[in-house]
Design goal:
Glutaredoxin; four-stranded mixed beta sheet; binds glutathione; GST_C; glutathione transferase; Glutathione S-transferase Yfyf (Class Pi), Chain A, domain 2; EC 2.5.1.18; alpha+beta; glutathione transferase activity; transferase; about 400 residues; 3 domains
């Protein structure tokens, strides 16, 4: 029989992916863990293998995809039966499945409520989480593992979430060890196992990651950004409404997944109403590419800066190797290969390598036409599509290339 091909679509901090890694390691199954870029662009394989949720983990076993971590752990147990992760008797298995279900429904979401909360809500979330932990501590009782003497199904589902406990403790200002010493001892016991320790992320790194998530959720703002009030124009007919920006939602840095839709036109127009209408989405190009926002920018990184980094080939005279690479990616990623992409920012940036400069005519996000010099962080905090990407539509008058003869 030929060797099994086992691929796990993974993300280093995902407790759900860690469940699958531990189960495979316990069974001694060799596998390839492929890191997904969940804050950037998801792989084709992920989108194809988990089209419903588009989440990790996905176990691809000899080309067949299995989704949802608890189902994956069961599948691993069924496929490679030794050593069994569930007790031999039906009642033992039912009990394990009951606690597995409790962990699934309560533990991660209960902890997440702590870091997602602000002010008085934090105390409420912390109290709820400690109650959940105490229930689990009751189920553990005096046993070493949830399964008794042997590490099993419930342990595999619960232990990965404990890598996030340090972050919960920091944001909730409590110590799991003080509240639930038996749970704390169980964590230490599980961490003695190679299968757990090898994939368990550093809790301080998880805490840093949670800090990033808090910024993405607008729960923290970056002190490095200057405190001034921002206004964003919103067009309603001829009226320009001015909306104040809540400073609390300013985002500092990170990798922002952007989907940029590009409508290119060749003739200049004074009024965008004169742009010919198009009847099919197939004729709109788009690219998916992350924008890197760095912590130590020293100056405000604006919306137009972000557009520049998304279309670098049109803002500098000589292409760097990186730019050449991204141009190739752009051409691969663009939906309509025949369309030419080109732009400059409102202050006339760059000459697009000897061509007459192109020009951005419009930037629209969530139906709003923000000023191009507003901090990109504000755009991310306030106009990010909750589903995933920051969707930005641009209309660009394309530079005529003098070298192009037809
Ligand atoms: N119920 C799922 C949860 C999986 C999940 O939430 N995965 C996260 C990473 S921890 C993910 O892929 N998120 C990407 C997204 O939501 O787009 C499971 O148990 O597998």
């Amino acid at each position: 029989m030929s060797k099994d091909e086992v691929i796990l679509l993974d993300f280093w901090v995902s407790p759900f992916a860690l469940r699958a890694k531990i189960a495979l390691a316990e069974k001694g199954v060799e596998f390839e863990a492929r890191q997904e870029d969940l804050l950037g662009e998801k792989s084709e394989l992920l989108l194809k293998s988990n089209p419903i949720y588009k989440k990790v983990p996905v176990l691809v076993h000899n080309g067949k995809a299995v989704n949802e971590s608890t189902i994956i752990v069961s599948y691993i147990d069924d496929t490679w039966p030794t050593p069994s992760l569930l007790p031999p008797c039906a009642y033992g298995r039912a009990t394990a499945r009951f606690w597995a279900d409790y962990v699934d429904k309560k533990l991660f979401d209960g902890g997440s409520k702590i870091w997602r909360s602000k002010g008085e809500e934090v105390e409420v979330a912390k109290k709820e989480f400690i109650e959940i932990l105490k229930v689990l501590e009751g189920a553990l009782g005096e046993k070493e593992y949830f399964g008794g003497d042997s590490f099993g199904f419930v342990d595999i589902l619960a232990i990965p979430i404990t890598a996030w406990f340090y972050a919960y403790e920091q944001y909730g200002n409590f110590k799991v060890e003080d509240e639930c010493p038996k749970i704390s001892a169980w964590i230490k016991k599980c961490l003695e196992r190679e299968s757990v320790a090898s994939g368990y992320p550093e809790p301080t790194k998880v805490y840093e990651f949670v800090g990033l998530l808090r910024k993405m959720h607008g729960l923290e703002h970056s002190p490095e950004l200057p405190a001034f009030s921002l206004f964003i124009p919103r067009k309603t007919g001829d009226q320009q409404l001015r909306m104040p920006c809540p400073l609390s939602s300013v985002f500092g840095y990170g990798r922002i997944p952007v989907r940029l839709y590009i409508r290119s036109i060749e003739e200049d127009v004074d009024d965008l109403e004169d742009v010919p209408h198009i009847d099919s989405w197939d004729r709109i190009s788009y690219l998916n590419r992350p924008v890197e926002m760095h912590k130590d920018e020293g100056k405000i990184f604006t919306l137009s800066d972000a557009i520049k980094t998304l279309l670098p080939e049109f803002f500098e005279d000589e292409p760097s190797i990186d730019e050449e690479m991204s141009r190739i990616e752009l051409e691969d990623g663009a939906k309509s290969p025949e369309s030419t992409l080109s732009s400059k920012d409102p202050e006339n940036l760059g000459s697009a390598r000897g061509r007459e400069p192109s020009e951005i005519k419009l930037i629209r996000i969530q139906g709003i036409e923000p000023k191009w010099d507003i901090p990109f962080s504000w755009v991310v905090s306030n106009l990010m599509n909750p589903e995933y990407y920051l969707h930005i539509c641009v209309c660009i008058r394309v530079a005529q290339d003098p070298d192009k003869i037809w």
